[in-house]
Design brief:
Elements (H helix, E strand, L loop, with lengths): L7 E5 L4 H12 L3 E6 L2 H13 L4 E5 L5 H14 L3 E6 L14 H29 L2 E6 L11 H21 L4 E8 L5 H9 L4 H9 L10 H11 L11 E4 L6
Parallel strand pairs: 1-2, 1-4, 2-3, 4-5, 5-6, 6-7
Length: 253
């Protein structure tokens, strides 16, 4: 079995925010990292930063909702970095609105990127993991999976990620592959900044308001999620599978 230093990881939506933090952390851990993103220029900026820090990374353009794009991207990763045995399904978008204002496009776009994307990426990567007898799939869910006003589409997709993860864990465990989901609470990213703007609030005030609701007394940072992902893809996490871990600064029910 290969060590972490000889493994290849794929991080979708890795150009910025949580994805970029995870990509950087996995590279720091010694993995070669493919940063997959629709924004190829931003992905290259992330991989350049990883390279400057001494890591090995490759930017790969992809539309995770398109099967052919996914197949091409994963095959390129295998050819240029090595067979991927770690996959982090992080790509995501929001199209928030109340149910009566939510359009079919709002629904389909969010479901396609989050849920179809996780399915297509996992299906494409799992064959390399089965061949290696080792694999780690980590998918990003959210506390919104428990329900969140104005996010019927996003909540449904993130809840779907949890069911998908548990089923993949059942199916692939015998091949040495684990599947887990991370469900972040409020994390300081461009996405949450956009939410504050949509609500007509300054981001600083929005963060203060949200931090007041969090038991640890602060909002989360992308690095908080990267630390958790680092553990879940490690050899030491081999007996942790089919779990949904809420990283929200306190308990969620």
């Amino acid at each position: 079995m290969t060590t972490d230093a000889h493994r290849t990881a794929i991080v979708t939506g890795g150009a910025r925010g949580i994805g970029a933090a995870i990509a950087a952390r996995l590279a720091e851990d010694g993995l070669a990292v493919a940063v997959l993103d629709l924004d190829d220029a931003a992905a290259k900026a992330t991989t350049d930063a990883i390279g400057a820090a001494g890591g090995r990374a490759l930017p790969v353009p992809v539309n995770v909702a398109d099967a052919e794009s996914v197949r091409t991207a994963v095959e390129r990763v295998a050819a240029e970095l090595g067979p991927p045995t770690v996959l982090v399904n992080n790509a995501g978008v929001t199209r928030d609105n109340l149910l009566f204002r939510l359009t079919e496009d709002d629904w389909d776009t969010v479901m396609s990127v989050h849920l179809r994307g996780a399915f297509l990426m996992s299906r494409a990567a799992q064959k390399y993991m089965v061949e290696a007898g080792f694999g780690r799939i980590v998918s990003l869910s959210s506390t919104s999976a428990l329900g969140n006003r104005g996010q019927a589409n996003y909540a449904a997709a993130k809840a779907g990620i949890q069911g998908f993860t548990k089923t993949v864990a059942l199916e692939l465990g015998k091949f040495g592959i684990t599947a887990n989901a991370i469900a972040p609470g409020f994390i300081e990213t461009e996405m949450t900044r956009a939410t504050a703007q949509r609500l007509g609030l300054s981001f600083e005030q929005y963060k203060l308001d949200r931090a007041a609701e969090i038991p640890v007394g602060r909002v989360g940072q992308p690095a908080d999620i990267a630390h958790l992902a680092s553990f879940l893809v490690s050899e030491g996490a081999g007996f942790v599978s089919g779990q949904v871990i809420y990283a929200a600064g306190g308990p969620k029910t």
